[in-house]
Design a protein that fits this description.
0% strand, elongated, mainly alpha
Length: 72
């Protein structure tokens, strides 16, 4: 019976140590300041550029429709 109790105590201490390690890791993660970075892989458009781009697309669609119109 003594061996069983000793085994239980060892397992309990191991669980407690693991729990403390995880709690410390979480505390370090929470206390570290977050660092944000912006990804600039694609050029950004200003609002005026967006309007000009959409106007060009609209003009192209009017000038050359993708499907012929069949009046019936």
């Amino acid at each position: 019976m003594g061996k069983g109790i000793r085994s239980f105590q060892d397992a309990s201490k191991e669980f407690e140590a693991e729990f403390k390690r995880e709690a410390e890791q979480i505390q370090r993660t929470v206390s570290e300041p977050m660092q944000a970075t912006l990804e600039t892989s694609q050029p950004t458009l200003a609002p005026a550029d967006e309007l000009a781009a959409s106007a060009e697309v609209s003009q192209e669609a009017i000038a050359a429709p993708s499907e012929p119109v069949n009046p019936t």
